Amino acid sequence: MSLPSCDILIQGGGPVGLACAAWTLQKFPDAKITLLDRNPINDDDLTNADSRGIALSHGSKLLLDTIHAWPNESAQIHRVHVSQAGRFGRALMTREELKQEALGHIIRYRDIHINLRHALRAIKAKSPNFAWEHINKDAEENNIHANCIVHAEGGLFKTQDWVESGRDYGQSALVGLVEVENAVPHQAWERFTAEGPLAVLPSHYGHNILNLVWCGSPESSQYRLQLSDSEFLSALEKEFGSRIGRFLKIQDRRLYELGLNYRKELTKDNEVWIGNAAQTLHPVAGQGLNLGLRDAFLLAEKLVGAFSGFEPSPSKIQDALQGYAQSRKVDRTTTIGLTDFMARVFTSNLAPVVAARGLALSALQWLPPVKTALARQMMFGRR
Ligand SMILES: Cc1cc2nc3c(=O)[nH]c(=O)nc-3n(C[C@H](O)[C@H](O)[C@H](O)COP(=O)(O)OP(=O)(O)OC[C@H]3O[C@@H](n4cnc5c(N)ncnc54)[C@H](O)[C@@H]3O)c2cc1C
User: Contact at 8 Å (CB) between 120 and 132?
Assistant: First the structure.
């Protein structure tokens, strides 16, 4: 395939690549951008795609609002209840104590994806030099000449063709939609079990239909995937207890392998990596896409700075990308570190770790400043 040259080539039309294109063009409509997208042109072909519930922070909502990409169908989280199965220690975070309208929002992956496509189409109408190319996965390599290449190819753990630093937690996530009798509206539950975190989160389908994310060993997760619905619900009730209400129905079960894979360097010459192409995280803290959107927003600012003036020199482009990498250091390191810490500490069964974990949850409950600091990091990241 042969396409004209461009200033900025964005590879990957997932949420992060789309958002990066949209924020750059919104500020600089004349930008010469080409977006390579492996997804189908028609949104209807995505409506049966990935329906897993993603927790987006209030900070991400504010960012997506700037390009009118916030989906209509979302569920707010007003309270988060954190506990560990069969051990002491629990914490409750509420929107009132954090003085926020919501602690987070749950949205289906495909709705975020489709809404970002709508937002980018609206911006495209005013962007004469923007080319949005849909490509076939099996097509030949492209030979586009670009002054700057943004990698937003994303991907899930173990499906990526690069492995750099990280950790295999030996866990899979079983996700699905579970119906609960008389669920508390807008409440999210996170329970740390011997095999991994188990989260039950609100959904836009109604108060009693909740998103389930059950992390466990790959073998147990595979076993649970194959259980009959009634066997699955009994196993879930045994692990979760009765606090949430009776589990009535399960649907749309899917498995994802989990791990940490991150690049030490975010740039090389005129190339830069963002979103899951830069770091792929365990979903325990619901941070992957939130971090990726912040990547996209800040990179867009740097790209506008580099390309909106006179013809940019290679050194000016490299300076801009290095400035980007520098500006992402603290947020990225903190988010990766916090997520990795939670994924490991909350699955350890060593007695001292179990005791420390209980104390940490109690401390969170009784030390409001610690709770607020943690919640702020989750909601807005670090700048
Ligand atoms: C079970 C689970 C639960 C999660 N929960 C949360 C959560 O609650 N909160 C949160 O913030 N994050 C969560 N995440 C993480 C989140 O899904 C990712 O961080 C997010 O999808 C990353 O977006 P992305 O655009 O970088 O990558 P992707 O979503 O992977 O999109 C990349 C796109 O690029 C395309 N592509 C790939 N290669 C090429 C190529 N060579 N050329 C062109 N296109 C290409 C792909 O087809 C794809 O469409 C969760 C992840 C999992 C697995």
Answer: yes
- Look at residue 49 in the predicted model and tell me its pLDDT: 79
The set of protein residues with a Cβ atom below 6 angstroms from ligand 1 is: 11-17, 36-39, 52, 54-55, 152-156, 173, 175, 213, 256, 275-277, 283, 286-290, 292
C-alpha 181/C-alpha 245 separation (Å) is 6
Lookup result for tokens 């389908």: 205
Report DSSP letters for 325-365, one per residue.
HHHHHHHHHHHHHHHHHHHHHTT---HHHHHHHHHHHHHHH
- Rounded to the nearest 5°, which phi and psi values hold at 151? -90, 115
Ligand 1 pocket test target in 289, 336, 342 with most atoms within 8 Å of CB: 289
Question: Pick from 180, 97, 183: which is nearest to 369 by CA?
Answer: 97
**What confidence tens digit (pLDDT) does each residue in 109-144 have?**
999 999 999 999 999 999 999 999 998 876 656 778
Look at ligand 1, atom 51, and give the residue with the nearest C-alpha. 283
**Mean of pLDDT over the chain:** 89
CA of 20 to the centre of ligand 1 (A): 14
Could you tell me the CA-to-CA distances from 191 to 83, 87, 126, 166, 174 in Å, in that order? 5, 11, 47, 24, 14
Q: Please choose from 1, 153, 282 the residue to mutate so as to test ligand 1's pocket, defined by most ligand atoms within 8 A of CB.
A: 153
Contacts of 293 (CB under 8 A, 6+ apart): 15, 16, 19, 60, 63, 64
- Can you say how many angstroms the Cα of residue 155 is from the centroid of all Cα atoms in its chain? 11
Partner residues linked to 234 by β-bridges: none
Distance of alpha carbon 312 from alpha carbon 32, whole angstroms: 12
Residue 183 has pLDDT above 90, yes or no: yes
Give tens-digit pLDDT for 45-72.
Answer: 887 778 899 999 989 999 999 999 999 9
CATH code of the domain made up of 6-163+261-380: 3.50.50.60
